[in-house]
Amino acid sequence: NSMCISAVSVVLFLFILWMLVVQLCRLTDRQSDGDAKATAVPKLLHSLSKRFSRTLSPSLSGPPSLPLLGNMLDVAQEHLPIHLTSLARRYGNIYRLNCGNTTMVILNNSEIIREALIKKWSDFAGRPHSYTGDLVSSGGRTISLGDFSEEWKAHRRVAHSALLRCTRDSLHSVVEKQAHHLCQVLWDYNGKSVDLSEDFTVAASNVITTLTFGKSYDKSSVDLKKLQDSLNKIVSLWGSPWISVLDSFPLLRKLPNPPFSRLMKEIARRDELIGKHIEEFKVRMNGQMMQTLTDTHVHMTTVDLLIGGTETTSALLNWTVAFLLHRPEVQNKVYEELCGVLDVRYPQYSDRHRLPYLCALINEMLRLRPVAPLAVPHRAIRNSSIAGHFIPKNTIIIPNLYGAHHDPEVWDDPYSFKPERFLEGGGGSLRALIPFGGGARLCLGEAVAKMEMFLFTAYLLRDFQFLPASKEEPLPDLRGVASVVLKVKPYTVIAHPREQ
Ligand code: HEM
Ligand SMILES: *[C@@H]1O[C@H](CO)[C@@H](O)[C@H](O)[C@H]1NC(C)=O
Ligand SMILES: *[C@@H]1O[C@H](CO)[C@@H](O)[C@H](O)[C@H]1NC(C)=O
Ligand SMILES: *[C@@H]1O[C@H](CO)[C@@H](O)[C@H](O)[C@H]1NC(C)=O
Ligand SMILES: *[C@@H]1O[C@H](CO)[C@@H](O)[C@H](O)[C@H]1NC(C)=O
């Protein structure tokens, strides 16, 4: 018993040390500002570690890994997609990081990502198991976090066909209604400078709740607020180092951990809220989505669609407005195209082939700010290879979509915002554009997201011109904050109605 206690205190000590180092790195990182992520502390640690480092995967290079911590310092970097991309400059388009007893392999280029996710989909369709992931997903029973299995395949197939049926039958009118509503809300602001993120979130989440519960909510709705609140808290708590450390150091699970208790409480609250909505929905039975799913899976599918479909779409709309504030001429071009092609009518999704500039704008946004910049980690379910390197079973694969979308080999001037690159002859490669991943784990909501992006952007730019809140305030910062979803830093904007 006393041995157990001393083991716990050793681990606790190491944990505190680790947290300190992580904080220190973050601090020095902030001071050094900009893209130059090679900071003094990690460099020192890296050079110290060289003498201890063991190479787990001799065929793949990567930054030297520390004893016990491995490359966890790299993984704890603030803007992980940018950090991983800068590591690729040193270690190549495929390299490894060690994390505890698992090896992670980072893919930085779209051909390599396509090889792993599409060509060899059956080798890499797994998801890593983790202690906290299992808790969040009721033992891996969501589509997004569930590992590859017969049960998962059936679950995904049913959800996919239900979603396809909805997309065909009613999605257009559902999205149209939310787009109209969103424009109405913006009209009512009367040219005041406002923060639109909440309105975007409400619009995106109403599309999903209409499909799943047959119900949409007002911005002031307490039910909606509770649900969004709970999902946001779960996502951000789950991403915090206090929680993720539990995956690598099981002994720490025995210690009191306030963020962890909050996470468990939120999970219970989420399940209660969603359970209530589903019950209500069963009574009314006029939603279209769930009729073919079994009870056991309805609940977690709802979580999947709400989490996957709300923050992503609203973050992308938010990015679009942020970039357009920097580039007013792009707004005008979209507006002129809409007026020229449609006259006064609102667009339909079927008009997209006649609106190439609008589509180019959406593609450019998906390229520059893929809102799921590192997709979701995959796991090798058998021995395989990528780009000629041996990849043993259980390796974690991280597709760096952000890196692939900034690859100078594929994109001219990859860091600049140029919708024209996606016009005919503009040189943009639709093949290399992979914001939704691919293969067995392709984003389940791709079709939904594309229609939402098209209609929301078209409606907004037809009715409004977006202007900076004031001349003094700086334009929005375009670097963003990367957690699970890549987001813009807070800013406000004026939606000025267009003369019709
Ligand atoms: C702009 C919007 C969106 C983007 C950029 C996006 C991107 C992604 C990406 C990169 C993945 C991971 C693929 C992988 O593991 O390789 C993913 C998974 C997923 N997305 Fe989306 N997504 C978007 C919108 C949506 C919407 C609207 C929904 C729901 C209606 C949705 C539901 C899902 C689900 C359920 C998964 C898990 C799929 C699986 O593991 O099999 N997403 N998404
Ligand atoms: C890593 O260690 C955990 C226990 O900490 C164990 O459950 C897991 O199977 C190990 N993974 C591999 C790939 O060896
Ligand atoms: C997978 O590779 C490992 C070497 O890392 C080897 O020991 C094992 O036998 C291989 N398994 C199969 C099924 O080929
Ligand atoms: C990885 O991607 C980044 C950005 O896309 C690029 O600058 C770098 O050259 C790539 N790495 C290699 C080895 O090509
Ligand atoms: C975009 O999102 C951030 C929060 O993530 C918010 O503060 C900002 O105001 C949003 N911008 C717009 C135009 O909604």
From TrEMBL:
Signal peptide: 1-27
UniProt cofactor(s): heme; heme b
Family, per entry: Belongs to the cytochrome P450 family.
GO molecular function terms noted in the UniProt entry: heme binding; iron ion binding; steroid 17-alpha-monooxygenase activity; steroid 21-monooxygenase activity; steroid binding
Protein name per UniProt: Steroid 21-hydroxylase
Positions bound to heme: 443
PANTHER family in the record: STEROID 17-ALPHA-HYDROXYLASE/17,20 LYASE, STEROID 21-HYDROXYLASE ISOFORM X1
Enzyme class: oxidoreductase
Localisation: Endoplasmic reticulum membrane; Microsome membrane
Matching Pfam families: p450
Broad class of the protein's primary localization: endoplasmic reticulum
Native source organism of the sequence: Sinocyclocheilus grahami
